């Protein structure tokens, strides 16, 4: 994992490359200045420009925006977003955005980026802001990376909080509502369209919630082992218990005693499936599975789609349904 010093130097270098002529003075972004942006866009025939961070924020925004906005996702397909940092091109996109959507916590680079790419007319929404966040599990790996991260954590990052609210279909509805409000704020002329689109997508999320609730109600076991601690909100919503091998960072390797603890738990509970994810090397999950004679299956934290998932036209709803089927199978063994 990158060290804090490396991240700081890299971000400083990117910031220095932003747009020449960008004022050094930081301007506070206010709702009062949003409407003129939308009006100017309409007069010029340009669509509202919505810039988002990683996949769930992109998908939620796209569903709400419909035909009335251009929605851009900064984190590329197949890239794990926890350690991603914006390039000079990404910073230029951010500066030009009418609306900027991010989840919160995952994107530690956001506060400095907003300051560097200042835009007084931009509407910014932290989609998880209205959600009561849970304390997350931070594991210190065998190299001490967890401790180092804690000591050098960015002053703007809320320490110890779990960001993975989008994996709970109920909490995802709150994120959709927050994004809808931001689009309406920036472009009140299309309020009815944004509201209609958001309501339609929330209805799909409610159907997804019903599927999870009925599908997981009578499973044989309630605990499941995951490679990284991304599923606490989902587990809490449906009466399950997540047993993570690693903490909130998907790239951190757990300490040997943590590995031994999980292996002991798996043997005692006769666990037959260890879940891993698509964008991170599954070697840790595979090691434990081999040790206990279990198999591995994908439980996707939806931090980004793979090329294969895009090729198969999978989206948030489709991947979550696959997650449900994987959980049902694993919890009924």
Please provide a written account of the structure.
The protein has a domain at 215-331: 3-Layer(aba) Sandwich (Rossmann fold), CATH 3.40.50. Helices cover 46% and strands 10% of the residues. The protein has helices at residues 4-16, 34-44, 55-65, 88-96, 110-116, 145-151, 169-186, 191-216, 232-237, 256-268, 283-292, 307-311, 316-331; strands spanning 48-52, 69-73, 99-102, 123-126, 223-226, 241-244, 273-276, 295-298. Helix 5 links the parallel strand 3 and strand 4. It starts with a helix and ends with a helix.
CATH topology of the domain at 215-331: Rossmann fold
Query: H/E order of the elements?
Result: HHEHEHEHEHHHEHEHEHEHH
Question: What's the architecture of the domain at 215-331 in CATH terms?
Answer: 3-Layer(aba) Sandwich
Mean pLDDT: 84
Q: Any idea what the radius of gyration is?
A: 21 Å
What's the helical proportion of residues? 40-55%
Task: Please give the largest β-sheet.
Answer: 4 strands, parallel
CATH class categorisation of the domain at 215-331: Alpha Beta
SSE order and pairing:
Elements: H1 4-16, H2 34-44, E1 48-52, H3 55-65, E2 69-73, H4 88-96, E3 99-102, H5 110-116, E4 123-126, H6 145-151, H7 169-186, H8 191-216, E5 223-226, H9 232-237, E6 241-244, H10 256-268, E7 273-276, H11 283-292, E8 295-298, H12 307-311, H13 316-331
Helix pairs in contact: 3-7, 3-8, 7-8, 8-13
